[in-house]
Design brief:
Layout: E1 2-8, H1 15-29, E2 33-39, E3 55-58, H2 75-85, E4 91-94, H3 100-109, E5 113-117, H4 121-124, H5 129-138, E6 146-149, H6 152-161, H7 166-169, E7 172-174, H8 181-187, E8 201-206, H9 211-214, H10 216-228, E9 233-238, H11 244-253, E10 260-264, H12 270-273, E11 278-281, H13 290-297, E12 302-305, H14 310-313, E13 319-322, H15 326-339, H16 349-364
Parallel strand pairs: 1-2, 1-4, 2-3, 4-5, 5-6, 6-7, 8-9, 8-11, 9-10, 11-12, 12-13
Helix pairs in contact: 10-15
Length: 366
């Protein structure tokens, strides 16, 4: 049985964490692998979702026995970690791209190491090439055997900015996020008590309340314009974050309390999809949103800004792709309310997962 190691920060709510849990649980169910998950912090809403066969270790405990320091790796403790774990695994993956400790653990644990890249970091760094390159140097991307991107667009940006380094480029590949469709379908049947189905056209947004990437101010501004048009609608917000109170204040100022409903974090968000007529994302940048797949499985059409591979995946198939501005989002929402919106193609999640499985096995057995 092959030994696999994955490293991340925590299992708090978020698309990356959700994707990791889906992937680990799938691998555990195959009974082919002995899996260890190293976390900086053993916390988060998704901890209870991890398969019991997966061993969870903490490599940044908050005590004097810390193996790796959060703000720099202590040389002595780093040496101790190497002595215990160097090349002890058949495959290792740094799933938290931005974490230097996660990178160190994965690079140390096996010769068949992989860096998983979830976001379009060029946009995160305001298209600053030097910062972009510096970021990948910081997580020692060159020292990994493979670099996996969750979208074609993210890989294309990487290739464009490091095209002079052929050895670097040859390490790259694209593997979309795995999705546990049966679990989603089952959990979507659970009852919720804090919200109900209404005739009012309902939009759903699921994710962290962080403005630099999710841009929920765009959604609130678009809602203000819809209300000025006297349109009947509501928006369910599942999630929370450092901007939640700011968003609530904005909703109150615009007198949108009856239109925008804050539901908070949900360990099981899927019943809320069943209450919605459309999923909506207003992000500035994304990797590959797991929430796309969740909506497609539950046959909920999508309105999304142009992020990641949305044009290839969503447009004219599973919804509408807008520009990254309030007016474009508003027009798409208005059209959905007045004329309706639907998925034009059925999502074959079995075929989708089979393709991912083939790529995963090739990666693990490299």
């Amino acid at each position: 049985m092959k030994k696999l190691l994955f490293s991340a920060v925590s299992l708090d709510i978020g698309g990356i964490e959700n994707a990791l849990v889906n992937l680990l649980n799938y691998l555990a169910r195959t009974d082919k692998y002995e899996i260890t998950l190293f976390l900086e912090k053993k916390e988060g809403i998704f901890l209870d979702k991890i398969d019991k066969k997966i061993q969870i270790c903490v490599y940044c405990p908050n005590d004097s026995k810390v193996i790796i320091l959060r703000k720099g790796i202590n040389f002595i403790k780093q040496t101790m970690f190497r002595m215990k774990y160097k090349n002890k695994y058949d495959f290792s993956c740094a799933y938290a791209t931005y974490s230097k400790p996660a990178s160190f653990v994965a690079r140390t644990a096996s010769k068949n190491s992989c860096l998983w890249v979830h976001s379009e970091y060029m946009q995160m760094f305001d298209n600053n090439k030097s910062k972009y390159v510096e970021f990948f140097e910081g997580v020692k991307a060159k020292d990994f055997k493979n670099i996996v991107f969750v979208s074609e667009n993210a890989r294309d940006i990487f290739v464009e900015n490091l095209k002079n380094d052929k050895d670097f480029i040859n390490k790259t590949s694209v593997i979309y996020n795995f999705i546990d469709a049966e679990e989603i379908l089952r959990k979507s049947q659970e009852k919720v008590t804090d919200c109900c189905k209404e005739k009012t056209f309902t939009f759903l947004n699921v994710g962290r309340h962080t403005e630099e990437d999710k841009k929920l101010t765009r959604l609130i501004e678009a809602a203000k314009k819809l209300k000025e048009d006297n349109l009947d609608f509501r928006i369910l917000l599942v999630g929370s974050g450092n901007k939640t109170q700011e968003y609530k204040k904005m909703v109150n100022e615009y007198k949108l309390e009856n239109n925008i409903i804050f539901l908070g974090k949900k360990q099981n968000p899927y019943p809320y999809f069943k209450l919605a007529d459309s999923l909506i994302l207003t992000s500035e940048y994304e990797g590959f949103p797991v929430v796309y797949l969740e909506a497609m499985i539950l046959n909920i059409p999508i309105i999304t800004t142009s992020v990641s591979d949305s044009l290839q995946i969503i447009q004219n198939k599973h919804g509408v792709v807008t520009q990254k501005n309030v007016n474009s989002i508003y027009n798409a929402m208005k059209n959905a309310i007045i004329n309706g919106i639907s998925q034009k193609e059925e999502f074959d999640y079995k075929e989708y997962n089979q393709e991912i499985n083939e790529k995963l096995e090739k990666l693990i057995n490299a």
